[in-house]
Design brief:
With 243 residues, this protein is mainly alpha-helical. It folds into two domains: 56 residues; 124 residues, acid-sensing ion channel 1 fold, CATH 1.10.3590. It is built from nine helices and three strands. A three-stranded antiparallel β-sheet has the order 2-1-3. It is elongated and about 125 Å long.
């Protein structure tokens, strides 16, 4: 009687252990990889399991092959350069914008200009005197002392438009030569116009146009003072010297 019970117990334990899923089966059934749970099914192996295993291995092989091919293509650093050249027989004459370091020419200032616009140009103070003359260079100081002597001076009418046209830059003096599409041009081909110097738009390249300007800038701009007291040296020496 005892032997029969022991044999039945051992047989039942063997059946329960055979029905318990392995770790691979548990992983396959919890994985999101499509088809993996059919490769490791519960129960006895079948032909379906072999078909799913072959399909899964084939897909993984194709994935590895395509990935290796793309990686090798990346390491070859391929590049494609496409350039289209369009030749135009005629071009519209371009607009030329000149941004001067100085707005006015220091050598063209008159006594009447200093009287009306000296404070505006930061060359004189509110009392029409030179602020801190020791900061100005000798030639600049001598010029200002001569022009800013308003003893018994009777000021004349002042026009800002006339002042800009007279003291501002003259394109005829600035232009050395001009050539556009193989033909010579001059200052007469340009029409000066006052615009917004704080904003502008530039397009394209020279387009066959060449323009040279004779600009004479003193090399002492770095010595200019940044404070209001040094405005005489800075404006006269750096901002108004190019002629």
């Amino acid at each position: 009687m005892m032997d029969l019970k022991e044999s039945c117990g051992s047989q039942g334990s063997q059946e329960s252990s055979s029905l318990r899923p392995t770790s691979w089966q548990a992983f396959a059934h919890s994985s999101t990889l499509h088809g993996l749970r059919f490769v490791f099914p519960y129960g006895q192996p079948s032909a379906r399991r072999l078909l799913w295993a072959a399909a899964l291995l084939t897909c993984l092989g194709l994935l590895a092959l395509e990935s290796a091919e793309r990686f090798a293509y990346f390491l070859s650093y391929p590049h494609v350069t496409s350039v289209d050249a369009v030749v135009s027989s005629s071009l519209v004459f371009p607009a030329v914008t000149i941004c001067n370091l100085n707005a006015y020419r220091f050598s063209r200032l008159t006594r009447n200009d200093l009287y009306h616009a000296g404070e505006l140009l930061a060359l004189l103070d509110v009392h029409l005197t030179i602020p801190q003359p020791h900061l100005a260079e000798p030639d600049v100081l001598a010029f200002l002392q001569e022009k800013a002597n308003f003893t018994a001076y009777r000021p004349k009418a002042f026009s800002m438009k006339e002042f800009i046209e007279r003291v501002g830059h003259d394109l005829k003096e600035m232009m050395l030569y001009c050539r556009y599409q193989g033909q010579d041009c001059s200052h007469n081909d340009f029409k000066p116009r006052e615009g917004d110097w704080q904003a502008g738009r530039l397009e394209g390249r020279n387009g066959g146009g060449e323009l040279s300007l004779d600009v004479n800038v003193k090399a002492s701009c770095e010595e200019a003072a940044d404070t209001r007291s040094g405005a005489v040296s800075r404006l006269a020496d750096c901002m108004m010297r190019p002629e």
